[in-house]
UniProtKB/TrEMBL annotation:
HAMAP family on file: FBPase_class1
Protein family per UniProt: Belongs to the FBPase class 1 family.
GO biological process: fructose 1,6-bisphosphate metabolic process; fructose 6-phosphate metabolic process; fructose metabolic process; gluconeogenesis; photosynthesis; sucrose metabolic process
Biological source species: Brassica napus (Rape)
GO molecular function: fructose 1,6-bisphosphate 1-phosphatase activity; metal ion binding
Keyword Hydrolase (UniProt): yes
Domain Fructose-1-6-bisphosphatase class I N-terminal: 11-198
Subcellular location: Cytoplasm
Claim: Magnesium is one of the keywords in the record: yes
Name the record gives this protein: Fructose-1,6-bisphosphatase, cytosolic
Catalytic reaction list: beta-D-fructose 1,6-bisphosphate + H2O = beta-D-fructose 6-phosphate + phosphate
Domain of life: Eukaryota
Length: 335
């Protein structure tokens, strides 16, 4: 009986990834182990984020003066991810938004993967309890020599997996290993991520645009024209709604599920935009393409960028296929 099966046959994220990996005869479970350490980091951050407000009020351990000693949530999250990833024994190079330099894993703990991540993105939203998230992308090492920073300076289309975890009204992990996109929701009573959003496809076209319009006076021509078109369409189509949380994970998650477009364009003050190529632009672009959408930099397909520095930035336009087509046309007309 199907209703019964739904309730008792729980597809956890570990089981899901094990199933996927079993399609590859050469797979030895390394990816599953790596992912379970990422999942551990996400669960830790979820729990810390949920307690953050209370911790400030009463002090988590009941101690006084805890605030002074307490590490900031983003630093704490970074420590947890770095330690979990290194001890997984499956990584060689780690790049985190929080660390200026890449972490090159010592030889006894090395493995075949490189992980780029933003442990807690959306810092301006932490203190008011609005959704924040973790973003990650995974590459494989292409050699067995000493790992270097160059091992992650590769185009996004070489990633083997990418995902994010959103700490919102529920805690959701969205993952792609290159064969579509799947969403898992944390069941707090089980401490497990359960498949709740199988095979996510972004609508071909959406009716929402998402951008920090406070920067409008500094935008370039194509971005200005595009946003004008969202608000005052001349072709008889309805105007789009504006939604902007200011947390990339939340804004991209909504875009993925409801359709539409998310923009962080270049402007006169930030000629490369704000968002980071390796651990913000690439993972989200990977997910968008895997869900049937597109991601564009204003010049080219985002996943074709080749970063020269680990903290490099790029403008980004991503979302529904047809919406991104429109902004691509405006940039093409400019050339
Ligand atoms: P952060 O790394 O300081 O948290 O900044 C990244 C965030 C993204 O989550 C979000 O898309 C963007 O910054 C919002 O920027 P702005 O406040 O300029 O609109
Ligand atoms: Mg960030």
């Amino acid at each position: 009986h199907e209703a019964d099966a739904y309730r008792t046959d729980l597809m956890t994220i570990t089981r899901f990834v094990l199933n996927e990996q079993s399609k590859y005869p050469e797979s030895r479970g390394d990816f599953t182990i790596l992912l379970s350490n990422i999942v551990l980091g996400c669960k830790f951050v979820c729990s810390a984020v949920n307690k953050a407000g209370l911790a400030k009020l009463i002090g988590l351990a009941g101690e006084t003066n805890i605030q002074a000693e307490q590490k900031k949530l983003d630093v704490l999250s970074n420590d947890v991810f770095v330690k979990a990833l290194v001890s997984s024994g499956r990584t060689s190079v780690l790049v985190s938004e929080e660390d200026e330099e890449a972490t090159l894993v010592e030889s006894s703990k090395r493995g075949k993967y490189c992980v780029v991540f933003d442990p807690l993105d959306g810092s301006s939203n932490i203190d008011c309890g609005v959704s924040i998230g973790t973003i990650f992308g995974i590459y494989t090492m292409s050699h067995n020599d000493e790992p270097t920073t160059e091992d992650v300076l590769k185009p996004g289309n070489e990633m083997v997996a990418a995902g994010y975890c959103m700490y919102g009204s529920s805690c959701m992990l969205v993952l792609s290993t290159g064969t579509g996109v799947n969403g898992f929701t944390l069941d707090p009573s089980l401490g497990e991520f359960i498949l709740t959003h199988p095979d996510i496809k972004i609508p071909k076209k959406g009716n929402i645009y998402s951008v920090n319009e406070g920067n409008a006076q500094n935008w370039d021509g194509p971005t200005t024209k595009y946003v004008e078109k969202c608000k005052f369409p001349k072709d008889g189509s309805p105007a789009k709604s504006l939604r902007y949380v200011g947390s990339m994970v939340a804004d991209v998650h909504r875009t993925l599920l409801y359709g539409g477009i998310f923009l962080y364009p270049a402007d006169k003050k930030s000629p490369n935009g704000k968002l980071r190529v390796l651990y913000e632009v690439f993972p989200m672009s990977f997910l968008m393409e895997q869900a049937g959408g597109q991601a564009f930099t204003g010049k080219k397909r985002a996943l074709d960028l080749v970063p020269e520095k680990i903290h490099e930035r790029s403008p980004i336009f991503l979302g529904s296929y047809e919406d991104v087509e429109e902004i691509k046309a405006l940039y093409a007309a400019e050339e």
